Amino acid sequence: MSSEPLSIVARNLATIQGRIREAAQRVDRDPSAVQLIAVTKYAELSWVEELVQAGVSTLGESRPQQLVERTGLLSPSVEWHLIGHLQRNKVRLILPYVSLIHSIDSLKLLQRVNDIAGELELRPRLLLEVNVSKEPAKDGFSTASLQDAWHQIVKLNSVEVVGLMTMAPNFDVAEDARPTFAALRQLRNELASQASSLELPELSMGMSGDYEIAVEEGATLVRIGSALFEGCSATVRR
Ligand SMILES: *Cc1c(COP(=O)(O)O)cnc(C)c1O
């Protein structure tokens, strides 16, 4: 087995970290306020191992089963985030393994997580996924439904809601994602400013195609998959 693909991963990582730093500096943000979540859903285990060796400490998976499997295969120091849709019957499975769930996409799911977390005596950190761009096929709270449910959400006491997450539509031009990210930040500011509200410090937005724009608009967590593993598949796969 060649070590070639591994150095590709480390190089991609350095490039992305540099771009995150530059994007933050363009808008006078502290680059250390932006955390890279390496999305490993399509990555071979060996590439993920190299990423961890290169210093990535937080990995994101979109499928609960794969996340749980991989927690046993990688260093126990890795933190795991769930970024994909969570079915209600998988809540009990996933809670013990995750340090953050980005994809709480309905009040029903949130209440379910609160119930199970209470039973398990856990207090999971959560982000609420908002379908800011109003695409019909996309999961998530609408802006209006989140505002309506807010008084119920702030009362849930077995979960810690720490922010919001969104996905921008798939644009050809990254700049087109900017209004979506700005709208998520604005919604966060509105919700957080209400009386007896939650602070909501985290904004999870930005993927391989648009993370620099997201950082300029205030992202604290960027979820990056394909850009990290660019150039890997041709070398490793048959
Ligand atoms: C796959 C995925 C990502 C990463 O996407 P890339 O374009 O590969 O960087 C980010 N967020 C979510 C929710 C995803 O499912």
Largest sheet: 8 strands, parallel
User: For the terminal residues, how far apart are their CA atoms?
Assistant: 12 Å
Helix and strand sequence: HEHEHEHEHEHEHEHEH
Strand portion: 15-25%
Give the CA-based shape.
Answer: globular
Q: Name the structural class.
A: alpha/beta
How would you describe this protein?
Helices cover 40% and strands 15% of the residues. The protein has helices at 4-26, 45-53, 64-71, 91-94, 107-120, 143-153, 178-192, 211-216, 232-236; strands at residues 35-39, 58-61, 79-82, 100-104, 125-129, 160-165, 202-204, 221-224. The protein has an 8-stranded parallel β-sheet with strand order 7-6-5-4-3-2-1-8. Helix 7 links the parallel strand 6 and strand 7 (202-204). Helix 1 packs across helix 2 (45-53). The model has no long low-confidence stretch (mean pLDDT 94). Bound molecules: pyridoxal-5'-phosphate (PLP). Pyridoxal-5'-phosphate is lined by residues 39, 41, 62, 83-84, 167, 207-209, 223-227.
Task: Give a brief description.
This protein has 238 residues and is of the alpha/beta class. Helices cover 40% and strands 15% of the residues.
